[in-house]
Design brief:
Blueprint: E1 2-5, E2 12-15, E3 22-25, H1 28-34, E4 39-45, E5 49-53, E6 59-62, E7 68-71, E8 78-79, E9 81-83, E10 88-92, E11 104-108, E12 124-125
Parallel strand pairs: 3-11, 11-12
Antiparallel strand pairs: 1-2, 2-5, 3-4, 4-10, 6-7, 7-8, 9-10
The structure holds zinc ion (2 copies).
Amino acid sequence: MITGGCLCGGVQFSVTAFSSAIFKCHCSKCRKAFGGASSAAALVGSEDFRWVQGEEGVREFQTDSGFKRHFCPDCGSILPQYLAGNQLYWVPVGLLDSDPGIRLKQHIHVDSKAAWETLDAETRRFSEGFGSSPV
Ligand SMILES: [Zn+2]
Ligand SMILES: [Zn+2]
């Protein structure tokens, strides 16, 4: 079991198995939300994810277009969120307390990546979302 949590430790969760490898999303919204070159996350089936502490305090921000991010009200860390349509949790892997065993396999929304970001040569790249044209 892998545990994770926010910067202040107020919100904590655990994962028993991952349903995907790690992917980085370079879209403009993820870059803003993370304050970096991309988001880095993996997917977890709802039966493999559990909130341990602080779930009731999690805040949600939603843009006009419907893009949502959940965050800790005390420290601002981005937090996992449930993707109801897929019955999966989207879990930012920087929150994990130890090596989850899975590795980075895909870059998505590469057409939107920051001009200053350099991508590794081995990882699969997609122009937009999963299943879009490889770059
Ligand atoms: Zn926090
Ligand atoms: Zn994104």
